[in-house]
Amino acid sequence: MEPVIVLVGRPNVGKSTLFNYLTRSRDALVADYPGLTRDRQYGRGKVGSRPYIVVDTGGLGDDPEGVALGMQSQAMRALDEADVVLFLVDARAGLTAADEELATVLRRRGTPLYLVVNKVDGMNRAMAGAEFHRLGLGEPHMIAASQGTHVAPFIEQVLTDLAPQESGPEGLPAELEEGIKVAVVGRPNVGKSTLVNRMLGEERVLVYDMPGTTRDSIFIPFERDDCQYTLIDTAGVRRRARIDEAVEKFSVVKTLQAIEAANVVIMVVDAHEAVTDQDASLAGHVLESGRALVLAVNKWDGLQPAQKESVRRQLDVKLGFLDFARTHYISALHGSGVGLLFDDIRKAYDAAMRKLSTPLLNEVLSDAVAAHEPPLVHGRRIKLRYAHQGGQNPPLIVIHGNQTEKVPAGYRRYLINVFRRELGLQGTPVRIEFKTGQNPYEGRQNKLTPRQLARRRRLMRFVKRKG
């Protein structure tokens, strides 16, 4: 069992920077901005042949309220799972009252604890760590997480000190299995984090009645009905003109990267608000990314029948291009309809990853062409000869023929609809790629025989006499 290492400390002491170094990733959002991390983030790392699980947490300050109170709750949940705690302090800021209070709380928990003095680059190490002895947590360990200075030897010491029998809860390593990766996306404050918590059955991510509460993309592995999933809670995406903070710009980038990394996307729409152009734009990005999709209309409870009918009309008008996706009307807060999402998630994933046999594709193509032939181009009929699969997630069907570069967009949509219907590819977009075979005689001049040349001369003499 891999040991679980939890990083805690005040805001802006470098926990996310150390998390990225230990996991050799850029999963945690990092900026010179206190309180950037709000949810706990899990990752894997390895020193030599010894693996471990590392958990990044939000900054813990004094007198938490509002969002900060939820951040503290998330950090305390992480501490309950810890085999060892790394308490980070800032060498440049020095010892603060908040550090002393947090040290008292951590000491009482009884979990193995290491005091880590970060940002010692360019400083005298003895001087930088002197005042932190007052915390009574043993010898401070001096590191510079941004450069990785002294980090590897320190982690080796932590893993060596940790006895093998002190492994964490049984479920944690299995929790990091990927399975079906499901990204939950939508505009700010539509209920994405509430939906993630409802699907997990616990308060795993921070929920607060304020747009932009979630800033990073949080990957959460779990198991349901013997099927492995990884839920990805993302930051809300809104119009570029309304993005003020640089941090929010990075959050949007993280969300778009999460869509690319996912197998299935749950797009959450707020039923209490009109379906906006931003909803349509985000749905278009999901479609361009080729990801399987499930549409969740949240906050459905309490709507009047006339309001529900209005929402359905808006979905048909503004999101009609998502006709391949199943729509669920849910309440993430109360849980109604949430359990039904998993069935369509699995169906959409199976459709996106399905292997399609070449004989079956050719049979469907032949029937489609027989029912509705391609149009004529300059008096010549476009011929579609055979098809085969070119990729998965989304399914890519490659069709060979002649003049395929002139296939109209309408006929392409017709073929996509036929393949989706006949192959049962519900919940995933289908892509078609046309390829024209090379003409072996293209560019070669036709050489006439003597008899053809004589006939040509007779015809030319006849034309001249007529003229």
Automatic annotation (TrEMBL):
GO MF annotation terms: GTP binding; ribosome binding
GO terms under biological process: ribosome biogenesis
Record's keyword annotation contains Nucleotide-binding: yes
Binding sites annotated in the UniProt record for GTP 2: 186-193, 233-237, 298-301
Annotated EngA-type G domain residues: 3-166, 180-353
Organism domain of life: Bacteria
Residues given in the record as GTP 1 binding sites: 9-16, 56-60, 118-121
Keywords: GTP-binding, Nucleotide-binding, Repeat, Ribosome biogenesis
PROSITE patterns reported for this sequence: G_ENGA
Family named by the database record: Belongs to the TRAFAC class TrmE-Era-EngA-EngB-Septin-like GTPase superfamily. EngA (Der) GTPase family.
Function statement: GTPase that plays an essential role in the late steps of ribosome biogenesis.
Quaternary structure and partners: Associates with the 50S ribosomal subunit.
NCBIfam families documented for this protein: GTPase_EngA, small_GTP
Protein name as it appears in the record: GTPase Der
Species whose genome carries this gene: Alkalilimnicola ehrlichii
